[in-house]
Specification:
- The two termini are 21 Å apart.
- The protein is mostly helical and 531 residues long.
- Helices cover 74% and strands 1% of the residues.
- The protein has a two-stranded antiparallel ribbon.
- Helix 5 (67-88) runs antiparallel to helix 11 (232-253), helix 7 (105-133) runs antiparallel to helix 19 and helix 16 runs antiparallel to helix 20.
- The chain is built from 23 helices and two strands.
């Protein structure tokens, strides 16, 4: 066993203090006992081979999880589902309510957009707070805080129309507060995923993205229905009640992993962002979010002008795209966990997104006539392809940081969760802003064409990363392709491992965390073997 060999000197010195003669140690027998008795980090979280259809492997993984793991997954599912509902539930009726109180469409759009902007700012902050406050505390308190804010948002209906300034101010304050609570819970949920399902992160992430898709689908539908049945306040009261009920469930079911997880000391967000590969994958997260959100201010106008569709038909088309996203996310997650490298999935996701956007426009150079059936096909392709590009990203960033030498612990998990959340929120905020501006200046066809070109560029960038990495692997170079000076990390971060004396490998370096983490277990096994 490689990690035993790396620690033999330390073990030998400790063996001497136990009155054991190291020369009499049977290394082969100890290696066998280490492999037999070494503990695993998760109860039943083994990576299943991808035999047969991806959907079969995904179902097989769910069946093989323990009862506790299913409860944890259910809690995380509810966190992501309700967080997305907070964002989407008021879409069908709030703009009209705001107009009735004298609020312009521009200001109304900013009331929606400030949610994502707040997520972008607060995600890295909560990533740093996770080792201090604990992931379970952040999830429970975030859900509790958001539930109160969403209920208070429903009371704004009682603000008089002539009090436009008070209405707008309260809307911004409550949306910002609501976003802070949702961000605390969702960022911490990423950390729980990494701790409780270390060998199936992409699979779990895919399941949680299904929750996000369901929140996008059911939020507007439920909000519109409840608004018709019981008025403005009922939608917010129901959602707030559901979120409040999840708080005791989260406290009871989510383990306090923070207590038994070592921390990396002074690892900082800036150090991880110095890794070029992390920046590339984070850019992919931003781009995937832009592809999704750029349709919000543009698609409905395009469908209304070109096909004279009513709001119900347009809602069904948006629902179709969300269904494709939610249905495919767990399958892509299982596929990503079965592969040694998930970067090719991102390449395929962005390439298919580019094709879908060019069909949706359609791209003027193709001389295609805009047809409704082409719109339907392109929306299905976009839903599945954005999911394909996005699902492997969180696990990939974790993998890159581990190979860079950062310790695999709660501090790093929190920072990576903050990076991912901030990247997605930035794209979610930038998409409508960029899309609305391009739509006014260039029209729908060229807006989709420019977005398709950005997706193609992203696919080429990630493909270049893959090819360059494999070039170094063929050479047998241990350092891999993207390196920075170890001096920039080692002087400030005792939690960061280094490669050679000159460089720190950012991809492909051997991770020695298992060797250092299992040293105590090896010594106990040695004592058992020697009797």
């Amino acid at each position: 066993m490689s990690q035993f060999s790396s620690n033999i000197n330390v073990i030998s010195s400790d063996a001497s203090s136990m009155n054991i003669n190291p020369s009499t140690v049977n290394v082969v027998e100890i290696d066998q006992r280490v492999e037999e008795l070494s503990p695993v980090s998760c109860q039943n979280d083994e990576t299943l081979p991808l035999s047969g259809p991806v959907s079969h492997a995904c179902c097989e993984w769910i069946r093989n999880t323990t009862k506790q793991e299913k409860l944890i997954l259910f809690c995380l599912f509810l966190v992501d589902f309700t967080s997305q509902m907070c964002l989407s539930i008021m879409a069908p009726f709030f703009p009209q309510e705001a107009n009735n109180k004298g609020v312009s469409n521009f200001v109304s759009g900013w009331i929606f957009g400030v949610f994502a902007l707040t997520q972008f700012i607060s995600s890295p902050i909560f990533g740093k707070l996770i080792p201090v406050l604990g992931s379970r505390y952040l999830i429970a308190s975030g859900q509790f805080f958001s539930s109160g804010c969403i209920v208070l948002f429903g009371i704004l209906d009682y603000v008089e129309p002539q009090q436009e300034g008070i209405f707008v101010s309260l809307c911004f304050v409550l949306r910002i507060a609501m976003a802070i609570g949702c961000t605390a819970a969702s960022t911490a949920s990423f950390t729980v995923t990494a701790i409780c399902f270390p060998n199936s992160i992409s699979t779990v992430f895919g399941v949680l993205e299904t929750a996000t898709g369901l929140g996008m689908m059911l939020g507007p539908a439920l909000g519109g229905f409840l608004n018709e049945v019981g008025g403005y306040m009922l939608s917010f009261a129901v959602l707030g009640g559901i979120m409040l009920l999840t708080v005791p469930l989260n406290i009871l079911c989510i383990p306090a992993n923070d207590v038994r997880t070592p921390r990396s000391g002074t690892v900082s967000l800036r150090q991880i962002l110095k890794i070029p590969a992390v920046l590339i994958v984070s850019l992919g997260v931003i781009m995937a979010a832009i592809v999704w959100s750029i349709l919000d201010p543009t698609l409905s106008v395009f469908l209304s002008n070109d096909f004279q569709l009513n709001s119900i038909m347009m809602g069904l088309l948006f629902l179709l795209m969300s269904c494709a996203y939610a249905a495919s996310a767990p399958l892509w997650g299982r596929l990503a966990d079965s592969l040694n490298d998930s970067l090719p999935l991102m390449v395929g996701g962005f390439a298919l997104s580019a094709v879908g956007l060019m069909i949706l426009g359609p791209f003027p150079v193709l001389n295609l006539t805009s047809e409704l059936w082409l719109v339907i096909v392109s929306l299905i392709v976009l839903g599945a392809s954005v999911s394909l590009a996005l699902v492997p990203t969180f696990d990939k960033i974790l993998e890159i940081t581990e190979k860079a030498g950062f310790k695999d612990d709660l501090t790093v998990y929190g920072i990576v969760a903050g990076i991912w959340g901030a990247s997605y929120a930035l794209g979610d905020f930038a998409g409508p802003v960029i899309g609305g501006w391009l739509f006014d200046v260039q029209g729908f066809e060229w807006t989709m064409s420019y977005t398709a070109a950005a997706c193609g560029t992203m696919a080429i960038l990630i493909l270049g990363l893959i090819l360059y990495e494999r070039k170094f692997q063929r050479r047998g170079d241990e350092r891999d392709l993207l390196c920075i000076s170890s001096d920039s990390l080692s002087d400030e971060a005792p939690g960061v491992g280094t490669g050679s004396s000159e460089t720190t490998p950012l991809l492909g370096a051997e991770n020695d965390r298992a060797a250092t983490g299992n040293l105590t277990s090896e010594m106990c096994i040695i004592s058992e073997v020697l009797g």
